[in-house]
Design brief:
By secondary structure, the protein is mostly helical. It is built from 6 helices and no strands.
């Protein structure tokens, strides 16, 4: 074996060993119990479950690749950040005013195409909110706001 071939072989062995070692780093992929659910009509809940719950709830369906580092780190980090922003499984923890504000923010994100993110929609066809679904969500969001309170206040 030539010197260059030995170096390449060593690099490959090191990369494979490194890949194996990083699999040992634990990642939190838990789904704590659901404390409460958002009160919404069935058609709204269906849209939320399909387009939002896989990050913004305790009902995440962890795909097989969420167990393979380094992708697992990204997915777990995204889920933790998403649950911090809005968590439909701990809806009871938010004040009514905060709930209205969170719904307004979510509606803005959906309208602007930021939610669900492209990298999620790419792997989960059908998770994009259609224009008809957006109308359903907007009508519900307007009803969710208390009389005299504008969405986003």
């Amino acid at each position: 074996m030539k010197k260059g071939e030995k170096i390449v072989a060593i690099i490959i062995v090191v990369l494979i060993a490194g890949f194996g070692v990083i699999q040992l780093i634990p990642v939190d992929r838990t789904n704590p119990p659901v404390e409460s659910e958002i009160q919404a009509p069935p058609e709204v809940k269906t849209i939320l479950k399909i387009s939002c719950y896989d990050c913004h709830s305790h009902e995440i369906n962890w795909p097989w690749y969420s167990r393979v580092a380094p992708v697992s780190w990204l997915i777990a980090s995204d889920a933790a950040e998403a649950r911090e922003k809005i968590n439909f499984s701990t809806w009871n923890r938010y004040t009514p005013e905060r709930q209205v504000h969170l719904i307004a923010e979510a509606m803005d994100e959906i309208r602007e195409g930021g939610m669900p993110p492209w990298y999620y929609s790419w792997k989960h066809p059908g998770s994009e909110v259609t224009s008809d679904e957006l109308k359903v969500l907007e009508a519900w969001a307007k009803q969710y706001a208390k009389p005299g309170q504008k969405m986003g206040d």
